[in-house]
Amino acid sequence: xxxxxxxxxxxxxxxxxxxxxxxxxxxxxxxxxxxxxxxxxxxxxxxxxxxxxxxxxxxxxxxxxxxxxxxxxxxxxxxxxxxxxxxxxxxxxxxxxxxxxxxxxxxxxxxxxxxxxxxxxxxxxxxxxxxxxxxxxxxxxxxxxxxxxxxxxxxxxxxxxxxxxxxxxxxxxxxxxxxxxxxxxxxxxxxxxxxxxxxxxxxxxxxxxxxxxxxxxxxxxxxxxxxxxxxxxxxxxxxxxxxxxxxxxxxxxxxxxxxxxxxxxxxxxxxxxxxxxxxxxxxxxxxxxxxxx
Length: 293
Ligand SMILES: Nc1nc2c(ncn2[C@@H]2O[C@H](COP(=O)(O)OP(=O)(O)OP(=O)(O)O)[C@@H](O)[C@H]2O)c(=O)[nH]1
Ligand SMILES: [Mg+2]
Hints:
Layout: E1 2-9, H1 16-24, E2 42-48, E3 51-57, H2 67-79, E4 85-91, H3 99-109, E5 115-120, H4 122-125, H5 130-133, E6 142-145, H6 154-164, H7 182-197, E7 207-215, E8 221-229, H8 232-239, H9 244-261, E9 265-273, H10 281-286
The protein binds guanosine-5'-triphosphate and magnesium ion.
Guanosine-5'-triphosphate is lined by residues 10, 12-18, 31-33, 35-38, 59-60, 120-121, 123-124, 147-149.
């Protein structure tokens, strides 16, 4: 058996989570067109005959503006500890590297394991930026141009990573695709709809917690979740006129949870204000933004 860990590092929005989902073949991490969607280190397991590659998706590398951002940066840094491969993800739609790309590249280069450059979004930007990004990593174990959306180039990337993994045990059972519990993904699917349907600071001020999951006799999954915001005004936006926004978030999130978990779902959503939750260490801890082990 060949097995090991591969960290996905890059600035926000380059497609790390989309790429991990595509390689794993299942939706493990949520995705949005807004930056700073991913807030945790999330493992996604790619199973191949005789091999297992455990991808570690991470929060996009950016300058933190509150304690949550600092926790996110810690989660990213922790993902690079002891991995067998580090992948710098950049996007073909940005013609040249920005400060976030350079910072991410320095982290990957400093990880002490083989470093790979992955130019994502070639369906939208072509391969022209490849030679512009390649110098970011002085010692390259491999360069790949891919599209996480169309799947172009992914088979080559997967094959190279399988070949790069050392001999080792199966870290996860055959049917496992992530290290996160079902409740985590359910909460994230609600947050994904909040990211899609709200604007400006609102999505970033939202935390979603699943309070209860219960299987009903009729086969329906009952899921109760709370959407936390920082201010009354944000609560108003999330509830919307006559409850329109909350109904819309709920309907779309329910459909996603039903699709992934394969059963009818009753989703009960509540909105609560938790002032300055992104800047309170104790609150962050309670909401699951823990210091990574
Ligand atoms: N055209 C195109 N869009 C892509 C591709 N991969 C990702 N995207 C889009 O890029 C946006 C960001 O994708 P994410 O996967 O959320 O990016 P991320 O790097 O995980 O972002 P953070 O979690 O914020 O760090 C989404 O709108 C995706 O649909 C791709 O290969 N081609
Ligand atoms: Mg992400």
